[in-house]
Write a structure and sequence with these properties.
mainly beta, 4-stranded antiparallel β-sheet, 8 strands
Amino acid sequence: MSNEVAYHTQDVGHKATRQCAIAYLGSLGPDGRSPSDTLEEGESRSVLVLGQNGVEEKELCVVVTQNPANGKLSPEVIDCPLPIDTRWVPACRVKTQVFVFGGMGHNGNHMRTLWAYTIATRKWREIPYKKPWPPNRYQCQC
């Protein structure tokens, strides 16, 4: 069996119209940062895709899960607190949460918000603004 990765396109219900973010939601390996090489019973590999969506503009957040038995991908739209026109948004997973900071909003305004998505509960919460706080950010990655 070849170790080469084969890439192909597949409709997952989210088509980025501006820079979107993606964060891995599945189980982690022993280092606590990278995806696990193996899956336990009932586990799957999932990613969170978020940002401006050319398929359905009101669906900014989509979780895409890979079926470990057949490799097929299935999307699920989830509630999303980001404004519809959000683009150039960074997302970063830290342990059990995905953090989304800033982005660009309506009329090119740089946003100064911080949201946390808890993977286990699938809930969002806004982190209140407190000084010191980094400057507004967009078009960056972590």
